[in-house]
Amino acid sequence: MSSSPEHSYNRFDGTDSIATSVDNTSINRPFPRNAYETKRSSTYVPHNRLSRYATALTNLIPVRFNSVPGSGLPLDKIGLFSSVSFSWLNEYLSAGCKNGMTEKPLPTIAPQDSCTTNGPRLEGLWHAHVVERGQAGASVPRIAWKFVRTRVLVASFVYLLGMLMSLMSPVRHSFIKLTKWRYMAFLLCFLTHFQIFILRKIILSIEERNIMSNNTMVNMTKPSENTTAIGIGNNRTAVNLVTEKMSLITTTTLAPLVSKLGNTSLNDEAKSWFGKDNVKKLPETITHIIMVDEVIVFSHVGILIFAEVVSYFLIAWSASMNLRTASRLRSACLALMYKKLIRSSVRFQASAHQTITYFVPDGETLYELITNGPMIITGPFLLILTSMLLWFLIGHWGLIGIAALIVLYLCLILTAYLTKVFATKAIEYSLKRLCLMEEFLGKIYLAKITLWDEYFKSKIEDTRCDELADIRRGGLSEGWSLCMVHIIPIITVCTMTMAILLTHKHIVSTHYIPVLVLLLINLKHCIRNSWLSMSSISRGVTSLHKLKTILTLKDTERYPDKPIDRSLAVTINHGNFTWVKDKSLTEKAIKRSSQFYVENHEGIPVRFQVLTPTDTLTDINFYAPKGKLIGICGQPGSGKTSLLLSLMGHLHHISGHVAMDGSCAYVPELPWLLEGTLKENILFGEIFNSNRYYRAIHSCLLHNDMNCLPESDDTDLAFVKMRPAQKQRIALARAVYVHREINLLDNPLADVDINESKDIFEKCIMHAMGSKTVIMVTDKIQFLNRCDIIYVMREGRIVEQGTHEELLQWNSEYTQLINFCMKKYQRKYYREGEQISTSSTQLLMAAVPRGVLTSISTNASLDSVLDDIDDSDLLQHEHDTDFPIKYCKENGKPLIQYGIYVKYANGYCLNIFICLLAIFYTFLIAVAPLCFTYVAQKTIKDNIHIIITFAVMLGSCLVFGLILMGIYNKTVFNVAKKVHDRWMDTICKAHISLFTTTPMTILLNIYTLYLQQVDSALPRSIITILIHIGISAFSASILGLISPWLLIPIAIFVLITIFYSIYVRGAILTLYKAKVSSTVPMFNHSVNTINGRSVIQAYHKERDFTKKFYRYCDNNSAFDFMLYSVKLWIEYRIKMISGLTLGVIIFMCASLTTIRDRFELMGLAFICTLQFAMSVIYLTGTTTRAYFSFMALNGIDNYIENIIKEQPGTARLPNNWPVESNIKFDNVLLPNGLEADANQEPINFTIASGEKVGIITTLDCGESLVSALYKFTDVPTGKIYIGNTNIADVPLEKLRQCISYIPSNPHLFDGSIRHNLDPTGKVTDKILMTVLQRVFLWEKVSKLSDKLETDARHIFTTGEKKLMFLARAILKKTSKIIIMEESTTNLGPDEEIVEIVLRDVFGGYTIIVLSNQRVRYCERTLILNNGKVNETFNRKSSLSQHSIATSEVFMSVPVRNVFETSF
């Protein structure tokens, strides 16, 4: 064994379980914590002092030169510039570009962003809020706002400053004629729209120069006419000349000159005049003024670049703050969710996977909420400023454009609301679909043997259709919103332009060009942000509201009081408990005393009192002295388990008093193991002690099991298949090792063989726990006489209590229970006429005092548990089962096939048509600035023609937009439907080995997270890419038409963008893979621990498991944070380059002779450059998200392609096959796991049609036999015949229709009784009633309030569930073979009813009973032992003669075994 006694195997200390670096196969170990991180504790301490902002204020230092090494993200150790620009990512991006980050350890989350820091803070806010408003009035969004409000407000203020810097607002050049209100509007616009003031100043300078040059040229050619008008002939100073020139520009000279110049600033005569070097003849003052204008133009271009850089820096600063805020909120929500679930009562039965995926907001939703949510305020604020500026520039007629803007903005709000409504409905269908899929995967064996797989498939597909219908409606409204984002500015400009033309007959270009920039660029940006904020708030708030469902769960109750009598460990005085929280104490428990009169072999009517599982414990008086063994017995469903759970606080405590003195250990009937090794399961977080450990191992008979494990007790049990008996022994060993004062054992030996159970009872319960208080529920009556006190329960009440001898003397409930069990044993194992013992205590053990055990060594040698290890038996998981991406064989990089989407989207023709529609639509949007510029230059002189032009442009935008969104929406959701249907079809036809080799969490992750990418993320990304590709392409084309030289900076900008996108691709892939891979252990841990929370709470290990979840969550959050950081890294740099590109283009426009004197072209170039840059920025972020989505689509497709499918069978058989239900095994070698045992001999036996045969065999052999009959596994050699037909040729559906299987521990499907009998709803109530009468269940069902509509999961006992399976076999009508597995637990009266039903109802069926003992009512018994078949007809069979050695050992067969007992 690899361990040593002095080493501590504490899995909860967080030193060795979380990985922080990813390569192609695994994740490397984290950096060790250094002294600096040890000193800086991240534990949250609530206070209201300003010192809590010390770290945040420290981060405002621009540059930090002394970096502090560590393993975490250096977010609190770097300067402001590094934080905003995300330059701390450079080393990871470089490593990702070189080798996929295989040699670069990935960091952990920053301490300030961890669950340890943020979880307690959010929990404290929630508790304070609940105290203030009550649980009903508490609001999760409200406390989430309190949690993030400081950072969000600061980030929103910084973002607003950045947006105000980027908005470009023109101002009037004269202040004299302004009214008071317009003067205030001017000041506000000037202070908030600094950059457009710069643009307008450039335009005014160019226009001044043009007017001055034109008038000077006219004066010099005709001085007698124009000297006085222009003032050049007068002897004035330069200052007076500039003043007069500025007055000339702003008064009557501007309009005539603009009209005279036409569509150019200089007429042809002026151009020819200046072309002859006559510019030197200009007066010196005019030359000086023109030079000053040139300086103003170029200086303002530099200021414009600086303003853009500052704007983008502020926006990036806001984004970096919002990213950390969202990461903290996500960590806090996950931490609070898990902490609440791990402390909740077992009354909450929802799946942990559903809880995490549905009730807890994901990181993307929270990031969008934090980033876009505040824009619900900043967006309208900027819109108001835009409207004021429009009114200020254009005048009162500009209010018409403002009115159109307001109406359209309200329509946008309506479409956003409709999107939210449809999305909410779709989420409900999505949850329903997830529940169905989880039930289907969790009960896949049961679904296949009952042929419910096709029902689940059709039900899930129907739900999927309803979900897609709402998603499609939401997609249409969202697509229309996207169209409105582009169309609203165009409609506003058209309305405003027509109002001006109809009233003023001309347009002042110096005002109009900045207005175009304001409306077509900045207004579109504001509208888009407002739309995003409304969508993000609706999704985020809805997600946070759902979290309240978790936070309002009932915690387990703690009983701090100790008994007054110190000799008692547990007391309950007049206790009343219920599973239903709102159940009234006065409401009586549901009682059912049903009498079934059937005839036994002697013809005497037998009366059965059938009990229903109770949901109420009434008037409980229970006392457990210290150091005593307390036994609890009763019929199934009498409330025994509920009594133990009520002691642990899981039931709702209505009244009475509960007191406990001592710590508890708990062993449930269905044993629970944590994910880890055998040793870790036994230690359970306690310090390793050699003597205690090996004592627990030997007292629970685990030494033989350890010898068969590949790595002894260091074997991870996730890779080993274990039987229920083995799990029960491990759970018992855990209780022995932790050494608690009170041990609660719920039927701990239910699945253990009878011989082993005696040894374990002596060594473990009587000796190892001899000095402790043991409260044991058991259905094995042979242990009851060893108990000091026995409590007998019936219908939720304690009806008797006393010692074994006292209860036997009273001849009451306990005596009847003993006699019934004895009679059941005799009827089960003895035939008629055989001599049987009449002693009611035949099965009872000899009394030996507790704590006294002879010839048992409590100090085991280490050598006794060492054995050879066969590593080949340990089956490791396939690489990347949670990240199923196909890799290129040459370079090892992921192979993303984009043609897969085309394949699902009905081929290339439809996709090309959609692209053409997108081209036409984006062409109209991109050329709108060109059209408006021509209108401003009066190129289109007739207003009628202008109206027609605007109408055609708007109508075309609307028509093409509607057609595009309609066809695209239909196409993408057909893709989603096809992908889902193919997935479901493949899962239903998948070989059973898929479900034994792949954890259900991975399948659910693929089904939920990957399909979610196909449903929403990918369609949204593709349409965004199509639109912005078109806009950027046509914008670049317009720039090329203005001047081909302008394409040079555009080309450089595009090349740099492509370079950055390729540069970060390796890091993105590695981080995405790490994120997906880290999600699986987080989900597995959550699912595992939440399912076993009753055990965790009993041992008070909630804090340890919470810390472990925190580590998993922090690990996942670090990868998620880095992924978003990479996106912001590239976005920040592209924005900075776009600002430089804009400045270069404006500089070129001011320098090129063909453009420098035409400010209209300069304004058009400015608009097209901004339009191009914004489209490229959106494209960069969207293509990254689309890359993730395409990876998900490729992963689903690759996973589907590699799934092994079942062999269907090709034989054509008659409808009534099989006519004869005889079974023949001809030299069959049964597989044990995936491969057959080389030492096993072939099996040969025949079962005649209608014969009842018992098969005594081991559990493994029985499972292999049933798997072979159902064709779950392929038989290596030999043939199996049913009705003289080889089943290898029989179609699967027909084969499974003729066989009905009843497992030992049957489970029903979620739903009503009717649903479990007839999921299709085609069978009438009368037929269902008749069938239930034939299996003796109708009387019970008829007394239920909802009859057949009653939920079937919790009202039937194990025996009654077997009867439900038999009722299904009757309804199936095609069943001719019944295979039943004998139960190891006591079924009570139901066991005899099952026997009667098999004898009377299924008399003509071929019946096979699998057992480890001879079954009395079978006509013949076969004994299978290592391939040998022994047949017996002996009328007497002792327990030892016909018992297969069932000392179960851990099979080194891994989790890939093809069949499990508990279907």
Task: Summarize the structure in words.
One of its GO terms (molecular function) is ABC-type transporter activity. It is found in: Membrane. This is Multidrug resistance-associated protein 9 isoform X2. With 1463 residues, the protein is an alpha/beta fold. 56% of the residues lie in helices and 9% in strands. Among the domains are: 86 residues, no CATH class; 92 residues, no CATH class; 215 residues, P-loop containing nucleotide triphosphate hydrolases (Rossmann fold); 142 residues, Rossmann fold, CATH 3.40.50.300. Helix 5 crosses helix 13 and helix 43 crosses helix 45.
Give Rg in angstroms.
40 Å
Q: Give the overall shape, derived from the CA principal axes.
A: elongated
Determine the mean pLDDT. 75
**How is the largest sheet built, in terms of strand order?**
9-10-11-7-12-13
CATH C-level of the domain at 568-580 and 611-701 and 721-814 and 847-863: Alpha Beta
**Count of DSSP-assigned helices:** 46
Structural class: alpha/beta
**Strand runs, count:** 25
**CATH homologous superfamily identity of the domain at 568-580 and 611-701 and 721-814 and 847-863:** P-loop containing nucleotide triphosphate hydrolases
Strand content: 5-15%
Contiguous uncertain segments of 5+ residues: 1-43, 168-193, 221-280, 582-613, 828-881, 1434-1463
User: What's the CATH architecture of the domain at 568-580 and 611-701 and 721-814 and 847-863?
Assistant: 3-Layer(aba) Sandwich
Domain ABC transporter: 590-820, 1223-1451
Main location: membrane
Domain ABC transmembrane type-1: 301-539, 912-1152
Subcellular location: Membrane
